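Exercise 7. Given the encoded structure of a 95-residue chain, write a plausible sequence.
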């Protein structure tokens, strides 16, 4: 008998059947989780409401889009004077 041989005659090679089953379960769980995540992302993207256009927007939204994008003090002052804060004050009173 050679010194490196197992005395019982059966050589242990690789993983046990229980380890293989556990490995397969883990792989299936990871793949299934990734698939579900991708399905949720696709469903969310297809059910979003359409973006409103300027024709459908209310007057306040249209007014905000007409404001200047300048950071000059005079332009900011002009935008503030043109902004109607009455609706915001009415909303604050309702709270």
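Solution.
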């Amino acid at each position: 008998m050679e010194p490196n041989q197992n005395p019982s005659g059966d050589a242990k090679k690789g993983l046990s059947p229980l380890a293989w089953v556990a490995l397969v379960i883990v792989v299936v769980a990871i793949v299934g989780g990734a698939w579900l995540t991708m399905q949720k992302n696709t469903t969310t993207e297809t059910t979003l409401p359409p973006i409103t256009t300027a024709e459908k927007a209310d007057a306040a939204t249209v007014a905000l889009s007409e404001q200047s994008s300048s950071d000059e003090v005079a332009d900011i002052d002009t935008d503030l004077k043109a902004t109607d804060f009455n609706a915001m004050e009415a909303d604050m009173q309702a709270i």
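Remark. The chain has a mean pLDDT of 75. Students should compare their own answers with the one above.
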